[in-house]
Amino acid sequence: MKWSSRTWAIFGAAIVAVALVFGLAQYRQARALRLRMEASRQRAVFNLISHIENMEGSLAKARAASTVGQQTTFLTTCWSHSQAAQENIANLGLSDMDLSKMQRFVAQVGDYSLVLSQKLARGDAVTQAEWQELGRLENSVKDLARALSETGMSAAVTGARFGLAALGNLGFLASPTDEALHRGFSEIDSLVQSVPSPTYDGPFSDRSLATKPLANPGPEVSLEDARKRGLGFLHPGEPYSSTRVETIDGAIPCYMVTGKRADGSEVTTAVTRQGGAPLWSVDQKVRGAPRMDVATARKAAEDFLTSRGLTSLKETGWRKPGRNADRVIFTFAATAVLPDGGGTEQVILYPDMVKIEVALDTGEIIGFDQTAYLTNHRERGLKAPLVSRDEAGKVLKSDLKISDLPRLAVIPLLPTREVLAWEFRVQHGNDFYLVYVNAMTGQEEMVLQMVTDDTGTMTM
């Protein structure tokens, strides 16, 4: 049967119409994705500004407070906002910007505040030089807050003025909002580099970060081997439109392996050069509305760890970055078995920590960090406790109610010092605490308050 020219014309028009409909659908999908990315990024920026401003306020109040109790409260509050600020920095999604110096500065301020609060809690005096150092850091945090505020306002105005025009680009090139953020964070990077680091003993001090060898290093892996390991770690078998591998020299030398999807989102994995282990991994794809509960997400996290050979881990807590968050972060710690009184006792190794992030829309693993595990997990040669569980319990205040069976744990006190302790979960009124009693000396080493709500459990 021969088709007439009219039939061919109709057929051609139909093909064109289908192509236009498909193209329009692709455009709308890309536009919606870009809008969600913009919204997520701006939310992270303004949350970051809020936490940095709260850090500044807490430092000022700590220096002005006249009682040890008030000073300790404000210093630990600063540390808490520092933790949240670091999380917002990680969620900015500026993969081509090096924000590590800003993150390191924020971590050091929070860490320094925590070290001083623990010193006060032990009954030791904070020296005048340490208060002066805290004042210097307060001024630097104030400068950072001002620079972030200016960057956030510039990005918001630029996005409102030009954002819709930029969305027409299906290739997801940098929008004017991205350019405003890049300019702002480049200036902030110069600012934080000019701030001298505080001198102290803590996990984020320069001395601790300068040398951080792997506990069990392996043979050096090639760039191509690192590419395969990195691309296949978080989402094995996923196709990427492009990939790149960069060599990073730092506390832990590694390869930075990045796979870019067709929609513009990226998955980045740091692979250690010694041994080829995944150090951390992040999926920057914008997530949809949450559709699963924490229990389901926990199962996904546990299954992922098992599939990657990370067994003998015990969950130590979880949290969501907000009440309506689209993700949940779990922390797991390694365990060991120790002879005790004719039986065996499980020991939680808190320094050997693994963090895993689960998307609440699909249950996919979108974040992973085993830096602490790789740098701390080793054969410790633990000895049986000299102080029994019952003897350690006598150290507690009489009005504390023990809410769970005490367990052994290795806890870090300084980057170079850790102790075996009995962990007591106790209640006082409506408040819950973790009290750690040295299993060798019977001395109370640390007290942490547990704050639990529908966003998870936080210790402070």
Structure description:
- This protein is α+β, with helices and mostly antiparallel strands.
- Among the domains are: 20-210, no CATH class; 389-459, Nuclear Transport Factor 2, Chain: A.
- The protein is built from 10 helices and 14 strands.
- It has helices at 5-64, 68-90, 100-121, 128-166, 176-193, 206-210, 223-231, 294-307, 371-376, 389-393, and strands spanning 242-248, 254-260, 266-272, 278-283, 313-319, 327-340, 343-359, 365-369, 401-402, 407-414, 417-428, 431-438, 444-453, 456-459.
- Strands 1, 2, 3, 4, 5, 6, 7, 8, 9, 10, 11, 12, 13 and 14 form a 14-stranded mixed beta sheet that branches.
- The termini are far apart.
* DSSP E strands, number: 14
Oligomer: single chain
Approximately how much helix is present in the residues?
40-55%
% residues in beta strands = 15-25%
Q: End-to-end span in angstroms?
A: 81 Å
> Mean of the pLDDT scores?
83
Secondary structural class = alpha+beta
Count of alpha and pi helical runs:
10
The largest sheet, given as strand count, sense and whether it forms a barrel, is: 14 strands, mixed
* Unreliable stretches: 160-174
What is the 3D shape?
Answer: globular
Order of helix and strand elements from N to C terminus: HHHHHHHEEEEHEEEEHHEEEEEE
Rg (CA only): 25 Å
